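Lecture 7 notes: from sequence to structure.

We start with a single chain of 182 residues. Read the sequence below before looking at the structure.
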Amino acid sequence: MIILGLVHAVSAQEPVSLFDGKTLTGWKIVTCEAEVVDGAILLKAGNGFLLADKQYADFVLECDWKALNTEMWDGGIYFRVDSLPAEGARSPWPKRHQINLRKGEEGAVPGVDKEKCSAQFRKGEWNHFKLTVKGDRAELEFNGTKVWTKDGFTPAKGYLCLQVEVPGGGQYLFKNITILEL
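Now the structure, written as tokens:
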């Protein structure tokens, strides 16, 4: 007896790097100063952000980040940004969702326990975020610990931004930035 079988090959998707460790290719600098230093993006001056050149819907974003000021730090990671502030706008920040990197609020978004999030922060060291966004739900793992899951993240797609407020204590390094589209 001969048994015929159907072979179904499934290839696992691999994350795509959003930063090559050498240039800012794929990012637009908006009202801040940024450069590549020792294989990391340094957000070094201004109130602004780096804007990824592509919009994303459902994804897993991973990155390592480090606050350089040991007294005060302020910045964030925005996702699903669908509109940018107009030139000369009262607020220089996008209107959509920010994962805070501000001292005492690291990893928080509105409506989650800031203390639970910031308890994961390692001062003076590299920190790791894994943000999973699917539908209107998002979840953040901070240094390997799930710190929140929350619904209500619309629109369905938008840009990613690395944000800095250097006058508020900012200056950050970012590296190992990858995204897996779901």
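The radius of gyration is 18 Å. Keep this in mind for problem set 3.
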